[in-house]
Amino acid sequence: MSALAARARDLLKELKSYSSDTLSPYNEELVRLTFSEIDEHNAQTEAIVSEMRRRQQEGEEPQQVDEVTATTMCLHYECIKRNKRLLLIYMNERMQRLRDMRWTQRALPETQKARCCQSEIQFYNDYSRVLSTYMSRAEGVGMDLTLDTKPPKDMAVTVRGLKDAGEVVLSYGRATILTGTTISIPAEEAEPLIRDGTVELVEWDDGYGRNKQ
Amino acid sequence: MTDYWSMDAALAEETLVPTKFKYGALGVASVLEPGSVRNDVEAGAKVEMPLWLATQLTRRGMTTFSLPEIYHERYRRKLNAGAECINLKGRAPYFYDVGNKCNEFLQDLTLSAFLSRTYATRYRELVSKGLSTVSGEAMLELQSKLSLEELAVFEAGRDSVSRAEMWSRGARPRRAAVYLPIRKRASAGREEEQQREARQRTNK
């Protein structure tokens, strides 16, 4: 018999050592070993039960289960339950992180994708499709909900160019972004430009000590 | 069970506690007592087992367990003398969780008083040192001492301080990369200087 749920514990520790917005590589080896540990506990419990059945069939008095056997069975049972719980936590935590990635980064980064197992990638694709359908114009609300966690106060934002990006195509036409130029563009189109460092958001005072943003 | 899905709660229960078997168990000695030559655990044997197993077996009246060493008299005296100096992260990363969980079974009133007193002392230190701006080195030293529960409080505190600062400057918390009004602060400083100069001139 292997140590008390130690492998499942190592799984969780491994996942915890990664920061909460990255995944640890899916440790198939340890998950498989945890399953075999559960099987082992199950086999030992069954061995105890069949031993008792055999004695009963041999015509012995149907005896009370003695305390030592009961303790052993409970021990196996608790180990199975513990392993199950740790595995569930492992899967749930990874699922949660995948979901967060869809909301904050919009796509699954290649480095993280390499760490997923097949069914996790499947889950991510399904989740992504459901969310896109909900946000689409045809079937859902027709807004990109992942852009802002709080409702924006204005449709347009003022941004300042940080490097010469040249001409960019925006929904209302073309705009030239050069270092230092300040333009007003729709908030949802500004977001990707801010993220890749082409422009910065200009926080300007509206005269009441608060930024308009 | 409310914390079934919590990773920290699950890991806290991995702490080993000294447990005494009432009746013994068959065929598990090699796991519970590494290095044991026998196959079975005897009645009355003392072994170290994780808290999750100890609580479940004790609930059924099959074992009894006592407190881990960190809650013993020797450490209690140390912690009472100077709670803020003890490094909990190395010795007992889940100091409060484990203590409370043990207390559900042991019902030791002195333990709960001891836990809350320790937390009160350490909390004062955490707030006074950690939330004011201190050097990175002092901060690291403080962080390396905190237990994981305290670390969560500490990080929440720092987060709220930075949010309050941002609010007082009148900005909405956006993505961190977006927020860098360095130029504005410089110009604000210049304005202040100009005002001071103007005031001095009028005083003359």
Automatic annotation (TrEMBL), chain A:
Main location: nucleus
Keyword Nucleus found: yes
Signal peptide: none
An example Gene Ontology CC term for this record: GINS complex
Compartmental location: Nucleus
Superkingdom field: Eukaryota
Keywords assigned: DNA replication, Nucleus
Start and end residues of each GINS subunit domain: 72-137
Entry annotated with the keyword Hydrolase: no
One biological process term in Gene Ontology: DNA strand elongation involved in mitotic DNA replication
UniProt cross-references to Pfam families, sorted A to Z: Sld5
Family: Belongs to the GINS1/PSF1 family.
Protein name: GINS subunit domain-containing protein
From TrEMBL, chain B:
Segments forming domain DNA replication complex GINS protein PSF3 N-terminal: 5-57
InterPro entries assigned: GINS_bundle-like_dom_sf (IPR036224), GINS_Psf3 (IPR010492), GINS_Psf3_sf (IPR038437), PSF3_N (IPR055221)
Coiled-coil regions, chain positions: none
A GO cellular-component term linked to this record: GINS complex
A Pfam family reported for this protein in Swiss-Prot or TrEMBL: PSF3_N
Domain of life: Eukaryota
GO BP term, example: mitotic DNA replication initiation
Protein's UniProt name: DNA replication complex GINS protein PSF3 N-terminal domain-containing protein
Organism: Edaphochlamys debaryana
